[in-house]
Amino acid sequence: MGLFGWGRNEAVEASDATAAQVRGSRADGALSKAGRSGDSGGLSGAATRLVERLLDVGIDGRGPFDSAHEVAASALEQARGDVDQALRVIRRDHRQLGAIGGFATGLGGFFTMVVSLPANVLEFYLLATRMTAATAKLRGYDIDQPEIRSAVLLTLAGADSDDLLKKAGLRVAGGKLSALATDRLPAPALMVLNKAVGFRLLGRIGQGSLARLGRAVPLVGGLVGAAVDVYMLNGIGRQAVREFPPVETYGR
Questions:
Q1: Overall average pLDDT of the 73-101 stretch
Q2: What does pTM read for this prediction?
């Protein structure tokens, strides 16, 4: 059983079943129903809310949380138009933000972990989403395009993304998730696919949270939290660069 009341196995099973709905029916009506099905609470509701938050805030920005568009533009300005340098700026800045959040989460130890850890998990995935979307933006992709937004979410799933696409009956050219843009999947299919990703991320949250028990020790927990978040963000950043090659060279 995970920290949030469900285990990884339960989340993965729900993810697989949801992805299979894309394979089983391409009819808009059936897929729309599948995307809306399930309890608005519990695991299904949590997956839907997580995906909505990541797309609405992580990519589009809200309040003090800048959008991926703004982050990409700022990084490009700092790099004086050098895209590769701008990508390094984005990864550096998000690793720094992740370190701050991870340290703050574990600083209070066990007595604050129950409240701070769920908040940090959301913050981590918002940072990862924005970093990935900003990377795609700098590489020439339209991050307002639904297929690219789904590819951004799939990048967060890491190695699980290939399994999800296989279960959904989808293939991406050359292993690049950005190829989803050429598939022109109907909106209901993307909605169902996004929800399947949400289940996978929730499964990782439950598993990863328990793996961070070093955070239960004040101060030491802060250092552990910072190190874990920086390491994971760095991995996602590298994955994003691989998944979103420059548009002008894609397919060569």
A1: 94
A2: 0.81
